[in-house]
Write a structure and sequence with these properties.
Shape: elongated
Strand content: under 5%
Distance between the termini: 9 Å
Helix content: 55-70%
Mean pLDDT: 83
Largest sheet: none
Length: 188
């Protein structure tokens, strides 16, 4: 399904490679929800201590900044390599960064677990704050969208060597004049 909006980078046809990445990131993220359900059964629904919630929010903000700083950073592809090897290196780098972003994005939920038990009184809501922030970070940074793919592809192709990532994932090329740094509307 294509979007006709001039500011979007449409998905031509999701490929099996894109679906696999979506399933893996979705599977990782579903654990956040399952833990939340389990915690709802064992932790009280009391109002959480304000400092506990602030600690989780600070961790989420720090993870967002860390993802922005390292989660899209990759060395440009070398033009001297054969195309097949270059594409293989690009795919490996893209997947590595995707998982780095996913792990960092889920950190607020993990910290929410620790804080929910370590801070008194224990409260399910402390974990819920971390879980909601983690899911938001996953949606923004780890879920493979045209925006997140373009940010990595722009870095990989900085020296003019094609990565083949968009084609493997079934995404159209970034529009002329787009930097891939967040100005492409998310799709898929």
């Amino acid at each position: 399904m294509s979007s006709s909006s001039p500011s979007s980078s449409p998905v031509a046809a999701p490929t099996p490679a894109l679906r696999v990445l979506q399933v893996v990131v979705g599977g990782m993220t579903s654990g956040i929800v399952l833990i939340g359900v389990a915690f709802a059964l064992i932790l009280p629904l009391a109002a959480p201590p304000l400092m506990a919630v602030l600690a989780v929010v600070v961790v989420a903000a720090a993870m967002h900044l860390l993802i922005e700083r390292v989660g899209y950073r990759v060395a440009p592809l070398a033009a001297s390599e054969p195309v097949a090897q270059t594409h293989q290196q690009a795919q490996a780098a893209f997947q590595r960064l995707l998982f780095v972003r996913a792990v960092l994005a889920e950190t607020p939920a993990l910290i929410g677990i620790v804080v929910a038990f370590a801070w008194s009184p224990s409260s399910w809501f402390t974990y819920a704050v971390g879980a909601v922030l983690a899911v938001a970070l996953v949606a923004r940074h780890a879920w493979p969208t045209a925006r997140s793919v373009d940010r990595v592809v722009v870095a990989l192709e900085a020296d003019g060597t094609g990565s083949g990532i968009r084609e493997v994932l079934g995404l159209t090329a970034a529009q002329p004049g787009r930097t891939g740094s967040g100005d492409v509307t998310e799709s898929g």
